C-alpha cells in the first residue's frame, strides 16, 4: 500500500494530467486500504479474510460543466483513458451554476494537524483469532446464553489523499481495530439475540475481549421472554446505542443540500431553539485518535471544532462549497466525499453535551415508560420530521429496568422530540457519534 507521500503524489499527478487535457479545474481523491478480519464460532475458526485495494477518483470541470470518473487500475494506459473520458464527459454534461472547487483562499495551508490516527501495532491473524475466541468464550459463559452467532476481530490501515488544481495536496493515514461478539439466549423458537462491539484507532485502546463477550451475553439473556407494552403516550428512554440516531436525523436536516432544496423539517430553524436550554451539539474533527477525526475536509478546507447547537440554539448549517454558493454563505469545512461523485457533507466526532441528570433520576421520572435498546425500520420523514420506528427494550418499573418488551412502535415528530429531550450525565466517547442516555416524554407507543 502506498504511503501518504506517494498517495498525495498520485492524486496530484492525475489532476495535472486533467489540466493538460483541457480541463478548466479538477480535483482527485486517492484511497487505499488493507484489512485483516478473523471470525470464529463455537470455538472454531470460521474465516480469515485479507483484502487490499486502492481507487482513484477524478472530477473535472469544463466551464460550469463537470463529470466524475474513477478507476482501480493504476496503469498509465488506464489513467490516460480515465482523463480523456472525464474531460469528454464534462464537455457534454449539463451546466450547474453552483458546482466548482472550494475557494482557493480558504484552502488549508501549511502542515495539517497531527491527530494520532495511525497505529504501528499490526496484529498477526493468530492474535486476532485469540481475541475473538476470548470474546466468544466470555459470552458463552454467561448463564442463559444458548448459542453463538460468532465473534470477530479486525485490523485495518488506510490512506486517503486529495489534490486540487487550485493548489491543495494533502494526505493522511489511519488505522482501525474492532472486536465484536453476537450470541443467542433462550430456548428453541424463542431465542433472543444481542451483541457488543468496540472499535478504536489504536489497538491498545480496544476493550478487553472478555468484557465485550460478557456484555454481549448479558444483553442477550436480559431480552429473553419479552412481553407486550400497552399502547398510548408514555416516556421513551433511548439507550446511548440507539440514541445517537437522533443526532443523525438532526444532522441530515441541517445539511446544505437539504436546506438549498428546501426539503428539511428544520428549514427555518437557524438561530432558533431546537433543543432544550443547556444542551449543545458539538463536532470535533481534531479529537486525538477519534474514529472520525480528519485534518482537512473533502474539499481541502481546514476543519475545526464547531458548536452546531449552543445552549439549545441552532448555530449553523453544514455546507460544502456548492451548497454554500447556492445559499450565499461560506463553506463550513464539513465537506465529505468518496472516490466517486461530488462532495456531500458530514460531521466528524459528534456528541451531545450538557446532560446533567443522573441516569437513576432520569429513569425514575420515566416511570411506566419504556427503555429502548433496539430500533428497526426507516420510518423517518426528513421533510416533515415525522418519526415512526419499530423498537424493543424494557419496561421502566420502580425506577429501574424491568421486564423485556418487543414488537412495538414509537412515534412522534422529530422537532418536538428534540425540543423535549432530557439528557443524562453518562456520556462516553466510544463511537463516531456519542450521546448520553436520553428521554423523550409523551411519545406515542403502539404495541404490535
TrEMBL record:
Domain Metalloprotease TldD/E C-terminal: 231-446
Gene Ontology cellular-component annotations: cytosol
BP GO annotations: proteolysis
Residue stretches making up the Metalloprotease TldD/E central domain: 121-223
Family matches, as Pfam families: PmbA_TldD_1st, PmbA_TldD_2nd, PmbA_TldD_3rd
Gene Ontology molecular function terms on file: metallopeptidase activity
Domain Metalloprotease TldD/E N-terminal: 26-90
Transmembrane segments: none
Organism, as annotated: Sphingomonas rubra
Protein name per its UniProtKB record: PmbA protein
Family statement: Belongs to the peptidase U62 family.
Amino acid at each position: 500500500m502506498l504511503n501518504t507521500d506517494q498517495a498525495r503524489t498520485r492524486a496530484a499527478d492525475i489532476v495535472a494530467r486533467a489540466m493538460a487535457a483541457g480541463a478548466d479545474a479538477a480535483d482527485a481523491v486517492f484511497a487505499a486500504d488493507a484489512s485483516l478480519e478473523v471470525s470464529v464460532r463455537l470455538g472454531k475458526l470460521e474465516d480469515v479474510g485479507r483484502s487490499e485495494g486502492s481507487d482513484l477518483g477524478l472530477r473535472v470541470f469544463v466551464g460550469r460543466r463537470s463529470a466524475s470518473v474513477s478507476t482501480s487500475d493504476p496503469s498509465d494506459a488506464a489513467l490516460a483513458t480515465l482523463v480523456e473520458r472525464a474531460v469528454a464527459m464534462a464537455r457534454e454534461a449539463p451546466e450547474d451554476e453552483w458546482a466548482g472547487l472550494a475557494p482557493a483562499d480558504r484552502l488549508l495551508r501549511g502542515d495539517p494537524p497531527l491527530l494520532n490516527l495511525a497505529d504501528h501495532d499490526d496484529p498477526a491473524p493468530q492474535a486476532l483469532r485469540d481475541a475473538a475466541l476470548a470474546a466468544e468464550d466470555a459470552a458463552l459463559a454467561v448463564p442463559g446464553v444458548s448459542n453463538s452467532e460468532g465473534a470477530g476481530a479486525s485490523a485495518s490501515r488506510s490512506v486517503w489523499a486529495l489534490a486540487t488544481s487550485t493548489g491543495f495536496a494533502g494526505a493522511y493515514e489511519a488505522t482501525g481495530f474492532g472486536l465484536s461478539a453476537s450470541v443467542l439466549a433462550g430456548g428453541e423458537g424463542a431465542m433472543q439475540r444481542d451483541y457488543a462491539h468496540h472499535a478504536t484507532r489504536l489497538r491498545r485502546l480496544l476493550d478487553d475481549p472478555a468484557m465485550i463477550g460478557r456484555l454481549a451475553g448479558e444483553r442477550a439473556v436480559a431480552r429473553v421472554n419479552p412481553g407486550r407494552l400497552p399502547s398510548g403516550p408514555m416516556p421513551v428512554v433511548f439507550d446511548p446505542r440507539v440514541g445517537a440516531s437522533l443526532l443523525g436525523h438532526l444532522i441530515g436536516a441541517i445539511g446544505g443540500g437539504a436546506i438549498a432544496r428546501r426539503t428539511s423539517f428544520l428549514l427555518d430553524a437557524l438561530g432558533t431553539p431546537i433543543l432544550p436550554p443547556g444542551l449543545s451539539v458539538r463536532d470535533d474533527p481534531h479529537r486525538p485518535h477519534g474514529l472520525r477525526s480528519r485534518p482537512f475536509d473533502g474539499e481541502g478546507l481546514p476543519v475545526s471544532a464547531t458548536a452546531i447547537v449552543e445552549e439549545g440554539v441552532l448555530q449553523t448549517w453544514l455546507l460544502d462549497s456548492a451548497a454554500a454558493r447556492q445559499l450565499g454563505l461560506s463553506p463550513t469545512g464539513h465537506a465529505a466525499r468518496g472516490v466517486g461523485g461530488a462532495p456531500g457533507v458530514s460531521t466528524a466526532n459528534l456528541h451531545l453535551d450538557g446532560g446533567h441528570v443522573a441516569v437513576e433520576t432520569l429513569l425514575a421520572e420515566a416511570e411506566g415508560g419504556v427503555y429502548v435498546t433496539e430500533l428497526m425500520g426507516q420510518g423517518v420523514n426528513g421533510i416533515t420530521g415525522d418519526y415512526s420506528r419499530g423498537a424493543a427494550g424494557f419496561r421502566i418499573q420502580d425506577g429501574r429496568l424491568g421486564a423485556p418488551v418487543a414488537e412495538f412502535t414509537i412515534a412522534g415528530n422529530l422537532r418536538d422530540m428534540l425540543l423535549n429531550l432530557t439528557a443524562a450525565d453518562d456520556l462516553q466517547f466510544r463511537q463516531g457519534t456519542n450521546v448520553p442516555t436520553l428521554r423523550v416524554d409523551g411519545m406515542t407507543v403502539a404495541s404490535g
